[in-house]
Amino acid sequence: MGISQKIYLWMIGLSVFFVMQDGTLLYVLLPIIQTDLQIEMSHTIWIMNGYILPFALLMPLVGVLSQRIANQRLFFLGILLFSFGSLCGALSPSFIYLLIARIIQGIGSSIIVPISLVLMLNQSEKEDYTKVIGIWGALSALAASAGPILGGIIGQFGHWKVIFFVNLIVFLIILICSISMQKHSDSELLGTLDFKVVLKRSILLFTMLLNFGVGFILNSILYVEPFILSNFIDSTFGIAIGVVPLCISIILAAVLIRRLEKRFSLLNLAIAGVVFLLCGLLFIILSASFNILAIALANLFVGLGLGLIIISSTSQAMIEMEIKYHCFVSSMINMSRLLGAVIGSTISSQVYNHFALSDVKHGANTFYTSLLLPATVIMLILIYQAYWQRKNKSFNNIQEEM
Length: 402
What we know:
- The chain has helices at 3-25, 30-37, 41-57, 59-65, 71-91, 95-121, 129-157, 162-180, 195-200, 204-229, 236-260, 266-287, 292-320, 326-356, 360-370, 372-391, 393-401.
- By secondary structure, it is mostly helical.
């Protein structure tokens, strides 16, 4: 691999890092933004949802467009849109302008995330897909864990608009590098999609449902926990410390999968992830202690469980499909997780707000208890997937051919 190609891959990784970081960095700053812009808590969720909704809903379109437009050109367009959205965010004087900026960023992200995974997989052999997806997942988790830390530091010592200025500078650099290195990308067009093949012969539907559940739980915690911790901690950096273990343990999950995938099936590793997830939730519920130490410890187990589910299920779906379907499959999986994120954070914020009116601890306990339902549904989906894989001969034949 030449130096130029390595730089090209580093630019892809850097773009994923900043897009994913932008998705979590603002969570710990929402209470500050709420005060600064003089808006209600119910409005702050749209600072995140305004980003996540276009991010999620446009991904299937990106998957279809990738069959007709070279991946690198789409990637370039995504970088351009995210850069413009960052500029608008940096200059936004009010909530409405900030919301528009977040929508533009979300549109750019809907292109960057699925295309980035495909561009990385195109540089790899099929037997290395789990490793590549693990690296991609770990990079995303590292960015997500860095987000709350940086957000806490910025909230403590600077202004929240600094985030958008940093994004603008970084993505302008990536933009310049993308223009100069287009020749190193795979510009082959792969024709039309056979949707029947994708849906009938694959586990894509299972993977989408699992990622929807993961997104529901992950973003519910990322959104509600800063508000829970703000009742006990004055420092935004302290709030970040409580949330960060959730994302760091997802990196640990990527390492574990890489070491254990030859001894255990990816499906079994995903089931183990649900066990860790349930243990983390039950710990915080039964302890009824919502200090920073208890929440951080629970988040370690929850994050490890979510990481095992995300990486295992995504790897299995990508290994199964031909390369021409990768962008579409990646788009659908990421869309499902982000839709779960929007719905989860919206519902969970309402649950917490309703029960926290009388008592904050009661609201927090009810919030974590409510997450047991999607966690249980994830387990049931995995059990049915195991049954389906044993009965479905076409799936087993595909696996044997690999």
